[in-house]
Amino acid sequence: MLAKELMDPNVISIRKETPVQEIANLMLKHNISGFPVVDRLGNVLGVVSELDLMHKEIKEDEPGLWEVLLGGILDSQQVKERMDAAKKYMGRTAGDIMTSPALTVDEMDNVTEVGKLMFRKRIKRVFVTRRGSLAGVISRSAFIKLLFGEEKNRPAGKSTPKVPKIQFS
User: In the predicted model, what is the mean pLDDT of the chain?
Assistant: First the structure.
């Protein structure tokens, strides 16, 4: 099965200049936990998730003097992480707070590989591209529906439909 067969093509995307408050309002209105940030051509530049919004509103703890003295100087990765967190805390637009680059897959990728990627990276969604532009999204719930079906919509006495065998190990 290909990514294009599992993806939802109805994706709400935002632009780099979209204000943070508008992003939060869209999340609440549509019950969506993250949006792709795209340019005018539909290229995926990044993603703004609930966690990115939380970073915006909740400043991470700075290391105390004793932590620095006892733990030594921060390494370059720790410095980068602190700078990124500070940037998100001060951010006003999607471009300021987005995680970039966003993980994307091509519409012709195998869903087993997509699932493995989502497991490895511990992400809730992956954006699907077609010739480099946003084409859809695959969420964890799409995999659950594929693997287990939607029992509530099935008439009584009907068995679970056969679905392709997908192995994530």
Answer: 81
